[in-house]
Design a protein that fits this description.
2 domains, Rossmann fold, methyltransferase, globular, SAM-dependent_MTases_sf, Class I SAM-dependent methyltransferase, alpha/beta, 253 residues, binds zinc ion, EC 2.1.1.-, three-stranded antiparallel sheet, eight-stranded mixed sheet
Length: 253
């Protein structure tokens, strides 16, 4: 997948010649994968007996477990799409609960990056709890540019955290980085997680929310807590809940 390298900010004049890219239709499922997104092992369990590699578009997303690292994930991953109003209401409630949870641990962050922000629904909801925080949004689609145009975010970044042009721009810049239903959908969640920590200032807070708004059983990265600790973080919540908050230790290189 290719992205348009683009940043749009209220803080800077727009680059002449840039335009909002068209937003492609989003499929219901991401591509089926043969290996574990967390460790790369191909020893996966959970597929129906006798099922082999999917041909063409799959019709179901199944929960699979890696036999090596025990990571559990939906395969193919669910992707954002037009949602039922009940699901959207569930998403809004999840956003409010997450904002409250972060407010208890980090009440006055100056800067916040919402990763995979889409239309920036979370920054819009969180503003009630963080009126003085500057929210930026990152998304692989041009939806974030629309969100910037209606001032839901201060700065719009198009791409992924692991894209070089994004990583350079966000390095150690934010007090909070949030990832809602994001790690479940990216090809390399560990690399994205490390890149998210790279965007945090020392002492900054990471919010990972894996609650599935479609009320499906949440699929939790088994190695998330261990990976956060290995990367120099203190996990402030349980690692098996729907929402994980961690602090990047000041001594993290
Ligand atoms: Zn694995």
């Amino acid at each position: 997948m290719s992205y348009v390298a683009m940043f749009v900010s209220r803080r800077e004049p727009p680059v002449s010649g840039t335009s909002v890219p068209s937003v492609p239709p989003v499929p219901s499922y991401g591509p089926y994968r043969e290996d574990c997104p967390w460790c790369g092992s191909r020893r996966l369990r959970g597929r129906p007996r006798g099922a082999g590699p999917r041909q063409g578009a799959p019709h179901r997303s199944l929960v699979e477990r890696c036999s090596d690292c025990r990571h559990v994930f939906r395969n193919p991953p669910l992707t954002p799409g037009p949602e039922h109003p009940v699901v959207r209401a569930g998403v809004r409630i999840g956003h409010v609960l997450a904002a409250r949870a972060m407010a208890r641990r980090c009440p006055e962050p100056e800067s916040w990056l919402d990763v995979g922000t889409g239309d920036a629904d979370f920054p819009r909801a969180a503003r009630a709890y963080f009126p003085y925080t500057s929210f930026d949004g990152l998304d692989p689609t041009g939806r974030v540019l629309r969100a910037r145009a209606v001032e839901r975010v201060e700065e719009a970044l198009v791409g992924r955290l692991t894209d070089h042009h994004v990583a350079v721009r966000v390095r150690e810049r934010y007090d909070v980085v949030s990832l809602f239903q994001y790690l479940e959908r990216v090809p390399d969640p560990r690399a994205e997680l490390r890149a998210a920590l790279g965007a945090l200032r020392p002492g900054g807070h990471l919010l990972v929310d894996v609650a599935d708004p479609r009320r499906l059983a949440p699929v939790h990265p088994v190695g998330l807590g261990a990976e956060l600790v290995a990367q120099g973080c203190t996990v402030l919540t349980g690692t098996r809940g729907h929402r994980v908050i961690a602090r990047k230790d000041a001594s993290t290189p």
